[in-house]
Design brief:
The complex is a heterodimer of chains A (659) and B (197).
Chain A: H1 10-16, H2 22-36, H3 40-48, H4 51-61, H5 65-79, H6 83-91, H7 94-101, H8 107-122, H9 136-146, H10 149-162, H11 166-174, H12 177-184, H13 189-203, H14 207-215, H15 220-228, H16 234-250, H17 258-272, H18 277-291, H19 295-303, H20 306-314, H21 321-334, H22 339-347, H23 351-358, H24 363-376, H25 380-384, H26 390-398, H27 405-418, H28 427-430, H29 434-441, H30 447-461, H31 466-476, H32 478-485, H33 490-504, H34 508-511, E1 516-519, H35 520-531, H36 535-549, H37 553-563, H38 578-581, H39 587-600, H40 608-617, H41 620-626, H42 633-657
Helix pairs in contact in A: 1-2, 2-5, 4-5, 5-6, 5-8, 7-8, 8-10, 9-10, 10-13, 12-13, 13-16, 14-16, 16-17, 16-18, 17-18, 18-21, 20-21, 21-24, 23-24, 24-27, 27-30, 29-30, 30-33, 32-33, 32-35, 33-36, 35-36, 36-39, 39-42, 40-42
Chain B: E1 18-26, E2 31-44, E3 49-57, E4 66-74, H1 91-98, H2 105-114, E5 126-136, E6 150-156, E7 162-167, E8 175-182
Antiparallel strand pairs in B: 1-2, 1-8, 2-3, 3-4, 4-5, 5-6, 6-7, 7-8
Protein name (chain B): Glucose-induced degradation protein 4 homolog
Pfam families (chain B): Vac_ImportDeg (PF09783)
InterPro entries (chain B): GID4/10-like
Chain lengths: 659, 197
């Protein structure tokens, strides 16, 4: 006998869900549904009691409309706002049944299922990949095209959540999704918003689909989206901007009035920053996308005080993670190129919220905070003033040990700038575990991490004193450095060689570090020089040679053995620097090659005259004479100096031998 | 130049480059000279921007060497022109100061005519700049030195020598800055590097 609702125990209600009597089932269903609406605790407890599989069973096998409607509604309720509920309904296999019911003849059933599906897809646990199985995608598109208002809207919002990978975007496009969604743009406000949501998802990071959308209907679709950025509804404005921002990022300079549209979007988005709810939370992220790599727009934003406005948001007490991430990303982009924007941001006292963001549980927030610091630190002035403190540097260094590789990559990039404190001692980094971590990353399997770590070490060695240099060489080791010079990635090679350049900069005691393992390091550099075709690598290697040649007699002689080996004395083809002295494409290489010679022939050394002789015999002086009218001013001036060294040495020899 | 892979070269504008010389103050009241060391720390030719540190030694009114941080504008007719347009320098002030550099005479007519915009500065052996000190690094603002004004600077690409005249409406006019590029006592020239991420 059915128990009275007011007195029924939950366990009994759950039991009644499986009653053979329709009326009893319906009543139990209604009661459970009414109890769980808006009540998280009740939802969890009914889940524990096993209510969900029984509810789903009703949806799966029953035929009476009220039962179907109520079970769909109950499913929706369980899935609303709690992940445990979403998991429970999905685990009970609800998805195929919901989808099947969307084609049911009865409107109320369809609407209830649509609402439930929407709830499920709001959750991060939504089964996105499952939607591409079988004919589900076609079904959703069918609903998009032919469904009622609510159903079409739900279909679009499901699609919006399903397009996160290139494959999914492509699958949806292949099934005609773009066209269907564009058609929705002519519909009601809700349809338009849902369509924009899905279009934004489809065009994100997708150049091909962005291009198709731009061209669709001779630009009519795009024009419609552009009109919608001025719609009455703030959500519409945001979604239209999001769509256009994605298209603009994936397909730069894709359409005619783009510049003008972007400026309009900037103003609209800045106002949307103040909107309450989801719109205000999402607006900063869209702003970040809009101004990425666009210096003109960044300049306009700066004049509109965008930086100050965003910094104010940063100072609020509790920000949802998405909004915080968006604000930090927007600030990172706005400050990526403009010193004025960086100054404005630092003036807004943002150090505390940024450092707090380093410790945020959400990965995206940490990445965005590092990105922000990276932008701020692209400035000598800032590095010498605001960004030097332990308060910022120590927590940033700690992020190098973050479990997420996305965070590590961005943290290393920021650290790469921060180590440039323009002091000799690099105290803060030296006193932390920063060097150990950078050395560790320099041996990572990931070439990007390797490159960034070596770059950071190179920057660390810029104008550093002998203590810092000694520490880096000891921890990195010469053999690892040689491996990095011979790395499979050219980017890594370049950084490793320029690290040696900085190592060799300065007084002879610093240059001695290059010889910590005899000739190994210098040989590695020379070998890479002889095989590399990349001018940047040649340049760095020549600078290594140059900097060593600026040292003492031992150093100069070591360079001589490298560039003018005795056995090749008699002809110029054996002289290493020839190739670069005669490089007609890159005057920079010619200049450094001449500087090497200037240093090798530097007057006053005990070995100067013998080096001069050797170089002369290798034909260097006559080569230089041919360069006396080099088209590059810098080369011309250095050649003059080098030739003076040759004639000075001759004079000296003549004078001394005449005694 | 077609196919050029690397940025244009100006040896003495490499980061880390040191310059040494003097700043002279000659007026009716006094005749002082103090030693100055400059180090270039940043150089962005695309934006016509430089920066670095300036150290003044044996300044009578200061107890220790005084170090400042300065930022420079390169007159490249792209980012900056001969006309300062700020720091209380009028066009007249500008012309008066640039004219004190002999290497400016060749350009003088062009500058008076159209601000010198048509002159090919990129290939001229001298670079014209303005250097403005921004803040004191190691002392307080009460150290007896002022950083209210700025320097008109003529820089020689060929040997890295620097000539400058300080302009500050409230200080003695035409205080001269004369620096030479130095390799800091080494047996050759060395070049360091860094890179922003």
């Amino acid at each position: 006998m059915p128990a009275s609702a007011a007195w029924a125990r939950p366990e009994d209600l759950v039991e009644s869900l499986s009653s053979l009597d329709n009326t009893a089932r319906l009543k139990a269903l209604r009661d459970v549904k009414n109890q769980i609406i808006g009540n998280k605790t009740k939802k969890l407890s009914y889940i524990k009691l096993g209510a969900v599989p029984r509810v789903v069973e009703i949806l799966a096998s029953d035929t009476e409309i009220p039962l179907l409607v109520q079970s769909a509604a109950a499913v929706g309720s369980f899935a609303c706002g709690i992940d445990a509920g979403v998991k429970a309904v999905l685990d009970s296999g609800v998805l195929p049944h919901l989808l099947k019911m969307l084609q049911n003849g009865d409107n109320k059933v369809v609407e209830a299922c649509a609402r439930s599906l929407k709830m499920i897809f709001h959750s991060p646990l939504a089964p996105k990949s499952d939607m591409f199985e079988g004919h589900r995608m076609e079904l959703i598109l069918e609903l998009l095209n032919n469904g009622s208002e609510n159903v079409a809207e739900v279909a679009a919002s499901v699609l919006a959540r399903c397009c996160e990978t290139l494959e999914h975007q492509q699958a949806l496009a292949d099934a005609g999704g773009l066209r269907s969604l564009v058609s929705l743009l002519a519909g009601s406000v809700k349809k338009q918003e849902a369509a924009l949501d899905a279009l934004a998802a489809l065009t994100k990071h997708n150049q091909q689909l962005s291009a198709i959308l731009i061209m669709m209907d001779q630009g009519a679709a795009l024009s419609l989206i552009i009109r919608l950025i001025r719609d009455k509804s703030p959500r519409m404005r945001l979604l239209a901007c999001m769509c256009l921002a994605h298209i603009g990022k994936a397909c730069p300079a894709g359409y005619g009035q783009e510049d003008e549209v972007r400026i309009n979007m900037l103003g609209i988005l800045m106002k949307l920053l103040d909107e309450p709810g989801q719109v205000g939370e999402d607006a900063p992220g869209v702003l970040a996308d809009l101004v990425t790599n666009n210096e003109e727009l960044q300049k306009i934003a700066q004049k509109e005080n965008a930086v100050e406005k965003l910094a104010d948001i940063l100072h609020r007490d509790t920000l949802p993670a998405k909004q915080l991430e968006g604000v930090l990303l927007a600030l990172a982009e706005l400050c990526s190129r403009l010193e004025e924007s960086r100054r404005q941001l630092l003036d807004s006292q943002v150090e505390a919220p940024i450092v707090a963001a380093f410790g945020h549980p959400c990965e995206g927030v940490k990445v965005a905070a590092c990105s922000c610091v990276k932008s701020l630190s692209r400035s000598v002035k800032n590095l010498r003033t605001a960004l030097t403190g332990e308060r910022l540097v120590i927590p940033l260094l700690q992020l190098l040990s973050d479990p997420s590789s996305a965070v590590q990559v961005q943290a290393i990039a920021a650290v790469g700038n921060i180590v440039l404190d323009f002091t000799l001692q690099k105290t803060v980094v030296m006193q932390s575990s920063g060097i150990d971590q950078l050395v560790h990353f320099a041996q990572s399997m990931d070439p990007i991490l390797r490159r960034n770590a070596v770059l950071a070490l190179k920057n660390l060695l810029y104008m550093a004193d002998s203590v810092v240099k000694g520490r880096v060489v000891n921890e990195l080791t010469v053999s690892t450095l040689c491996e990095l010079i011979r790395d499979s990635e050219e980017d890594v090679q370049e950084q490793a060689i320029s690290l040696v350049r900085n190592l060799a900069y300065g007084d002879p005691d610093c240059i001695d570090y290059v010889f910590a393992h005899g000739d190994l390091l210098l040989q590695a550099v020379e070998q890479q020089l002889s095989v590399s075709l990349r001018p940047e690598i040649s340049m760095q290697a020549l600078y290594v040679i140059n900097n060593v040649a600026a040292g003492n007699e031992r150093h100069k002689d070591a360079v001589m053995d490298l560039v003018a080996p005795h056995k090749a004395l008699s002809n110029t083809s054996g002289f290493l620097l020839n190739r670069y002295l005669q490089d007609m494409i890159n005057p920079q290489l010619r200049v450094v090659a001449v500087w090497c010679i200037i240093n090798l022939t530097y007057p006053g050394g005990t070995g100067t005259s013998s080096r001069v002789t050797r170089l002369k015999n290798a034909g260097v002086e006559s080569l230089l004479q041919k360069m006396a009218d080099d088209p590059c001013l810098d080369v011309k001036d250095r050649v003059k100096t080098a030739l003076e060294h040759f004639s000075t040495a001759v004079t000296l020899v003549a004078t001394t031998s005449g005694q | 130049m077609p196919g050029q892979a690397l940025p244009p070269t100006c040896t003495f504008l490499n980061v880390g480059q040191a310059f040494a010389g003097t700043q002279n103050v000659s007026s009716m009241q006094k005749d002082e000279a103090w030693k100055v060391n400059v180090r270039l720390q940043g150089c962005d030719m695309q934006r016509g921007y430089l920066c670095g540190s300036m150290e003044a030694l044996n300044v009578p009114s200061a107890e220790t060497p005084v170090v400042t941080f300065w930022e420079g504008e390169i007159v490249d007719n792209k980012n900056y022109t001969f006309y300062t347009g700020k720091w209380e320098a009028t066009k007249d002030t500008d012309v008066k100061h640039w004219s004190k550099f002999s290497s400016f005479l060749e350009l003088q007519d062009d500058v008076l005519k159209d601000g010198g915009k048509s002159f090919d500065l990129a290939n001229y052996p001298y670079m014209f700049m303005r250097w403005k000190e921004k803040f004191f690094v190691n002392v307080g603002t009460d150290c007896g030195l002022t950083i209210a004004g700025f320097y008109y600077v003529c820089f020689s690409r060929s040997d890295g020598s620097v000539h400058g005249f300080y302009y500050d409406p409230n200080s003695s006019p035409y205080q001269k800055l004369e620096l030479k590029a130095t390799n800091e006592g080494r047996a050759g020239y060395s070049f360091a590097t860094y890179q922003f991420q």
